[in-house]
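quick one before i forget lol
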Amino acid sequence: MYVVAVEFRVRPGALDAFLPLILEQARNSLSSEPGCHVFDVCQCEEIPEQIFLYEVYEDRAAFDTHLASDHFGTFDSAVANLVAQKHVRILHRKSATA
C-alpha cells in the first residue's frame, strides 16, 4: 500500500474556511477513487491549526489518479491562501501478517 502523510499548518483565522474544504476533499477521494482506501483528517488538540492527513492508496498509480482529479485541483486552488505550511511524506505500509 502507498501511504501519503500530509501536515498542514493553517494560517491564523483561516481554520473555519479550511476544515469544510479538507473534509469535502476526503469524502470526494473516498467516494470517487477506487484506489483510495483511507483518507483520515486529524486535527491537533494542542494546535488546532495543525491538520494531519493519513491517506492510503492501492499504489502510486492510484495516488497519481488522485492528484490528476478535478476535485483535487479545485481543493488545491481553494486552500492555497489558507495554508501557511504543507509537508508531504510518502510511506509504504508493511503488513504484520505473513
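fyi Strands lie at 2-10, 36-43, 50-57, 83-92.
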